[in-house]
Structure formats: C-alpha cells, structure tokens
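G., the chain you wanted modeled:
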Amino acid sequence: MFVEQLQLRDFRNYDALTLALDAGINIFLGANAQGKTNIIEAVYFASLGHSHRTRTEQELIRWQQPSGSIQLQFQRAGVSQALAFQFVRGKRRRILLNGEPVRPKELVGHFNTVLFAPEDLYLIKGAPGERRRFLDGEISQASPAYYHELAQYNHLLQQRNTLLRKIRDHQAGASMLDLWDPQLIASGVKIIRKRQAAVQKFNMLANLMQRRISGNVENLQVGYVIHGWPVGTSTNELESWYNKELAKKRELDILRGTTSRGPHRDDLALTVNGIDLRTYGSQGQQRTGVLALKLAELEFLRSETGEYPVLLLDDVMSELDADRRQRLLAFICREHIQTLITATDGAYFPADGPGVFYQVQAGKVMGKR
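Predicted structure as tokens:
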C-alpha cells in the first residue's frame, strides 16, 4: 500500500498543493510552523476520517477561506484508488471513495496508516485512555466490524450514563437499567474478546521488535488488563462476571453518573524483562518500547491485511538517539515501507540519503532529490 499523489486545496496553510510521492521514503525538511506536519495530518485523515491534532474540522480549512479539500490517490493490492474529503464552513464534511459518497463509518479499513508523533512517547507513561485509543485504532484499521462494534458500545455507554444521571436526579427509575445493561454487556464482551486476541498476537510482534531495537537484551511483554477483574482467574465467565459487577456497582454508578465497569476502563500492561515499564522503566527503555509498539503495529496490520500500511513519522527523529534512528531507517528500507518523515534538520539522515528529500517553507513544497 502506498500513496501515489496527494492534493490539498485551502487545507491548513496550503492554498494549492499537488505532490507525487515516492513509494519509498519521503523526507520533508524545514523550520517549525512551515507546513510539514500538515502533510502528515492530511494523509492520516484519509485513513481514519479524523485529525490527530484537532477535533474541529473547521480548523483544517485555510484561514478566511470558505472551503478546503484533501484528495489522495493510493494503491492497494496493485489497484489504484482515490479518496476525497471536502470541507465547507458550517457544513459536515463530504467523503468520496472512488468518486462515490461514503459515510465515515464506511471509510475505515480502505487506506491504512501508522502514525508516530512526539506525543506518542507518552503512550507508555500516559493515562490508560491513550493506550486504549492506540489499541482501538490498530484493530479498527484491520477490522471495520470491530470499529462498528466499538461505535455501538460507545453509544450504549453514553445512553447508560445519561440514564444514570437522570436516576440520580429522580427523573427516571433504576429499573430502566435492566433494559440497557444486557445490551452494554453483550457489546462490551465482543470488544474485549477482540482486544484480547489482538493483544495476544501483538505481544509476540512487539517483543520481536523490542529485541531488534535493543540488540537482543530486552524482552517486551504486552498484556490486556480488564479493569476490576480478579487476578489469576479465567475469563470464560466474562459475561456473567460483568452482569454481577454492574449490579453490585449500580448504586455507586448512579451516584457518580458514570459506568464503572467495561472495556472503556481497561488498559494495557507493559513490562520489559519482567519490570513494569511505565513505573520503573528508564527513559531509554520507554522510548524503545514506544518505537517497538509502533513497528509492531506495522507488522500487525500487514499480517491482518496482507500489506504494510503507510508509515508517518512526524518530527520524531530528534526524539530518538542515533542508534534508534539507524535501526528504524534500516527496518523501513529493508521492508520497503512507504514512509513520510518530517524533520527540521537533514543531519538526522545518512549523507547519501535514504530516500527523496523535499524542502517545505510557508506552505510551499520545493525541491526533490
């Protein structure tokens, strides 16, 4: 899978850009705030239908312009396809796949990316929600059915939480929860089972990558942690356990107005050589761990879809030491993964150049070698 051409019109600080991309490594150099990350953002948007930088799509339209667009031509399994996103102020965006309108939930899975940005370095030591988003994004790109189930679960969860607050405020009866809980539990169990299967596979891939990056001295283990689940017990009776837990926590849930059990509270456990990476890992181990997770995500998507996704590296070269940069570039070159890299300094790359270089300045992309 690779991007053949990217076109932007009135997107962020670009008035008009048509960019033919190399199927290998594409490196965008320039000072900060020139538009490098905007290119990464546009390609990422095409894969999941949302930005990694903002939840407000109006911000994607160039200053004082009424509309903007992203057009992406990409090749998947040897077949060229096209995606287009049209943004108009005050209206919902429009998505076209090969010229035909599609809904946002129908987009995921057609074009896949893996993004590695500076904020991902907090994936390990950050809050559980960051790790859940990472896991859900990875599985969703490989399985649109999972993406739909996750949307259904979040809808049910929102409805239950709204009902909890109404019960607390004496606007509804607690017996109404008996209608919502079975639906929430059934959907939640499906999500957990899919996550567990993915993490089992992901654990093997992440450990392989950790060993490669660390020179075979570190073993990374990734496990799925069900919030509140008794340690050491089988998950065969997961549905029955959730039913009992929701009943036991009902009064507390009503008081707080939130649901205290479910996949929206779960987490990933990460250990290196048996040590909790989040609490006791060194900064170097944590950065190696994040890089291993991202490379494992590439391998996971390849194993699930049959080909590598496009890799997006947004200003992370400065965050990695020379050894990690060298290992990362060697892996990308060896596996022939199309990669878009942004950086402020060309010194992060070998003198002979691992790919095609572009200079970005004030919303203009210039030069190529």
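The first helix runs from residue 36 to 48.

Shout if anything looks off.
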